[in-house]
Amino acid sequence: MTRISYQLYCSRNFPPLGNTLKMLAETGFKEVEGFGGLFDDLDGLKAGLDATGLKMTSSHFGLDMVEGDPAKTIAIAKDLGIEKVVVPFLMPGDRPTDAAGWAAFGARLANAGKPLQDAGLVFGWHNHDFEFVATETGELPQDLIAAASDDLALELDLGWVARAGLDPVAWIQKYAGRITAAHIKDIAPAGENADEDGWADVGHGTQDWAAIHSALQATGVDHYVIEHDNPKDHARFASRSLASIQKF
C-alpha cells in the first residue's frame, strides 16, 4: 500500500495552518510532511494535527538544528510522531565548490544523522537541482553525498531531477534501496504556468508518471510526497494531485 503525503511547504502562502490541515483532511489525505518553520508553534501544530487526524510521518529539518541540537530534533520528531527526518537544502553561499567539498559535506551530513538514527529515526537528504551540476572531476554532488554513507537515506525529488535535465526513472533505479520517499512533483509544458514558477499539479504536466510509478514500485518505494513549490491555489493543487496519484 503506497502512502501518499502532502508537503506542507506547498501551503506556506495560505495561512492559517489549521485551515490548511482541515482542507487536506477533507480532500482525503492521511499524512503530511512538515518543514522547519512549523516548529515555531509546536502546540498549535500538534493541535491542528490532532483535530484533523492527520499524521506527520516525515519532516524537513534544517541542518543547523540537526547538527546543533540533535536532542531537540529527536524530541520534536518523537513528540509529533515523525519517523523520517530529512535535511532539505543548502543555501548557495554554503554549497561546496568542488568534488572534495561535496564528499566532505556528505560525511558531515552522515555524521549529523547518527544520533537520530541511533534514536530509531530514518535520516536522509532531499535534493534540488544543484546536486546534479557536475564538479571539476565530472562527479555529481548527489553521488558524492550518497557515497559518504550507505545509511544515509534519500528523499528523491523527481521534479528537480527532471529540471536538471535528467531522467527520473534512471535515478530511481540507480538508488534502488536508498530512497525512503519520493517527492512527486510535475513540470508545466515550456512557457506555461510562469506565475507558478513553471510547476504543475501532479498529472497535469510533462512527467511520465506511468514509467515513474512503475520504477518506484519496482524498487520498493511506498512513500509518495506530493509537492508544488508555488501553487496559486493550494486546494486545487491538493485535490487534483491526489486524484492523479490515485489513478497511477
UniProtKB/TrEMBL annotation:
Q: Which residues form the Xylose isomerase-like TIM barrel domain?
A: 23-233
Which keywords does this Swiss-Prot/TrEMBL entry list? Isomerase
Q: Which GO terms describe its molecular function?
A: isomerase activity
For this protein, the record's InterPro entries field holds: IolE/XylAMocC-like, Xyl_isomerase-like_sf, Xyl_isomerase-like_TIM-brl
Keyword Cell membrane in record: no
Report the Pfam families cross-referenced here. AP_endonuc_2 (PF01261)
Instruction: Give a yes or no for keyword Isomerase in this entry.
Output: yes
Q: Could you identify this protein by its name?
A: Sugar phosphate isomerase/epimerase
Q: Which organism is it from?
A: Yoonia tamlensis
Tell me the lineage of the source organism. Answer: Bacteria, Pseudomonadati, Pseudomonadota, Alphaproteobacteria, Rhodobacterales
